[in-house]
Design a protein that fits this description.
- This protein folds into two domains: about 5-100; about 105-325, no CATH class.
- It is an alpha+beta fold.
- It is about 60% helix and about 5% strand.
- The chain contains 13 helices and five strands.
- A hairpin with a 5-residue loop joins strand 4 and strand 5 (about 90).
Length: about 325
């Protein structure tokens, strides 16, 4: 099926007739329901049914969102990620958090490789923002900066499902595995190790956590959802490998409880992926807010002032029209 065929079929199904799956890894305020439809024998998932993406958003996000499948599944040529006509994001099962979790548990090295590539992209974006700080609000560079931030979005979201969609499910399933074999006390002492990252530590010191938290429960993740924040190039280099004092104790306890060999292999995959994944997830949320969205917001306000259109009017006009106005 072509991309347009899939979009047409999914868009034609009323939301009230779709299968709704409740997930335990997120609270209701952050979309704890997943919509599921079957298209030609393939399951498609909408994991954020409360988030709607405008044409303006998609001009920044669609290309990188679609490129992720080429990076992870180069042998599959059928479309695996689409935006329907309502503005909802859909992923075929392999690209959903459920499919990706299964895939990466079997190939944790590929997860680390993807996150390493993202780290390289993130560092380049931060450096570019720092380099252009003095000319970001210079109208002489408005068209150039607008083009550059569009390119930044394309680089930053190359692994959006692996970073944003996957992590909540991965952390929840890991905790469930621990609960299956360990005592409540052991779980409570061990699991919090995995929810600590370099970006969070630095953000706490600088007072950025409360600022970002105010955005957490918005019902949109459009590219301008954080334009109210002060633009900043905030970054903390993640640690690829983390070591915890109670690692050995926990492994011995799992062996003493006669953990199944399959579950032990899954535990080791989680142990490899989760610490790095948490850091990348946290870092990414600071970059997408104060880094990308806030900087784009500055440019959009400047374009509005220059053209006489409001920011809302510019978004309605769309990306091609904005680029034309800036020529």
């Amino acid at each position: 099926m072509t991309r347009q065929d899939i979009i047409k079929k999914i868009s034609s199904i009323p939301v009230e007739k779709m299968v709704v799956v409740q997930v335990q890894c997120r609270p209701a305020e952050k979309s704890n329901q997943v919509l599921v439809v079957n298209i030609d024998g393939k399951k498609w998932f909408c994991e954020r049914p409360k988030y709607f993406w405008s044409n303006f958003d998609r001009a920044f996000l669609e290309k990188p969102y679609l490129s992720e499948q080429k990076l992870l599944y180069p042998g599959i040529h059928e479309p695996m990620t689409i935006f329907d006509k309502r503005g909802l994001l859909w992923s075929r099962e392999e690209m959903s958090s459920f499919g990706l979790l299964k895939y990466f548990l079997e190939h944790p090295n590929l997860y680390l490789s993807a996150m390493a590539e993202h780290t390289y992209d993130a560092q380049n974006i931060i450096q570019q923002l720092k380099d252009r700080k003095k000319i970001w609000q210079n109208t002489d560079y408005l068209a150039e900066n607008f083009r550059i931030i569009h390119e930044m979005y394309a680089r930053f979201y190359r692994f959006q499902s692996s970073i944003f969609m996957l992590f909540d499910e991965m952390a929840y399933r890991f905790r469930e595995l621990l609960i299956k074999y360990l005592t409540k006390e052991e779980v409570n002492l061990y699991f919090p190790n995995f929810l600590s990252g370099e970006a969070t530590k630095l953000a706490l010191l600088k007072g950025y956590v409360a600022e970002r938290a105010a955005l957490e429960y918005q019902t949109t993740r459009g590219v301008l959802y954080a334009m109210s924040l002060k633009p900043r190039a905030f970054y903390a280099k993640p640690q690829f490998f983390s070591f915890y004092e109670n690692d050995g104790e926990i492994v011995l306890s799992l062996l003493a409880k006669k953990i199944l060999s399959k579950d032990l292999q899954i535990f080791m995959s989680y142990r490899m992926m989760l610490p790095f994944g948490y850091q990348i997830n946290e870092e990414a949320q600071y970059i997408e807010t104060a880094g990308l969205s806030a900087h784009l917001g500055v440019l959009m306000k400047m374009i509005a002032k220059k053209t006489g259109y409001s920011v809302d009017q510019l978004q309605a006009k769309g990306m091609p029209a904005i680029v034309k106005l800036l020529k």
